[in-house]
């Protein structure tokens, strides 16, 4: 295994306000983390590092094991029905059991410290690391593979991103200061992939908090490219986002 994916799931979900850490809130009978893992296990095999809140480590491990075992079963029986909208085709088959790919570790107070905790557990032979938000629960496996393949082709950092659809204004208080050319903008998603050495060094040297890994790596002087993300890779942040995710999953299971 030469690839790892760090799934950050240690946030509290304050904006969702669902009474539990966000990754452990149900979309249907399965929580956000489980849906995210279904997509991850349908992508090319990788070490899967789940970064969870300290009090949810056991819960995270059982969710990850269940997702791994179900992915093994789906891979063995391609007639199996797709449980989520991101499951278009049969999953890739790996020789080892997917649960052997799972590592669970406690996160930190910020997303950046949670990623750092995950990076500390990457296996020695891994040379490409993807960082992915658990909250982007319905991310299609194709997006994950696309990011990893582009890092392999170019050696650069690569993020999933989509075009901006809203009309954006630069504002100065209540005044509209300028229109912004939408063609110059993209909405950043995850996964974001990097050469392992590049990401490790950038994290070791980071002295401030960045909003995503691409910003942290770019600040360390590296090029970052984008590949096409997906509307399904939206981040579940608010109650309205959770409702949307629930509708998508319900429709896909009919
Ligand atoms: N995350 C994390 N550790 C933190 C903060 C965030 O692992 N200390 C993870 C979240 O679990 C989520 C991803 O980073 O999968 C993106 O963060 P966000 O959507 O902001 O999630 P929360 O921080 O949980 O939500 P909120 O900001 O509303 O509290
Ligand atoms: Mg947050």
UniProtKB/TrEMBL annotation:
Cofactors demanded by this protein: a divalent metal cation
A molecular function (GO) term: 2-C-methyl-D-erythritol 2,4-cyclodiphosphate synthase activity
Enzymatic reactions: 4-CDP-2-C-methyl-D-erythritol 2-phosphate = 2-C-methyl-D-erythritol 2,4-cyclic diphosphate + CMP; 2-C-methyl-D-erythritol 4-phosphate + CTP + H(+) = 4-CDP-2-C-methyl-D-erythritol + diphosphate
Site (Positions MEP for the nucleophilic attack): 182, 235
Site (Transition state stabilizer): 15, 22
Family assignment from sequence similarity: In the C-terminal section; belongs to the IspF family.
Pathways per UniProt: Isoprenoid biosynthesis; isopentenyl diphosphate biosynthesis via DXP pathway; isopentenyl diphosphate from 1-deoxy-D-xylulose 5-phosphate: step 2/6; Isoprenoid biosynthesis; isopentenyl diphosphate biosynthesis via DXP pathway; isopentenyl diphosphate from 1-deoxy-D-xylulose 5-phosphate: step 4/6
Key words, A-Z: Isoprene biosynthesis, Lyase, Metal-binding, Multifunctional enzyme, Nucleotidyltransferase, Transferase
Protein name: Bifunctional enzyme IspD/IspF
Entry superkingdom: Bacteria
Organism listed in the record: Microbacterium faecale
UniProt region (Disordered), positions on chain: 72-93
GO biological process: isopentenyl diphosphate biosynthetic process, methylerythritol 4-phosphate pathway; terpenoid biosynthetic process
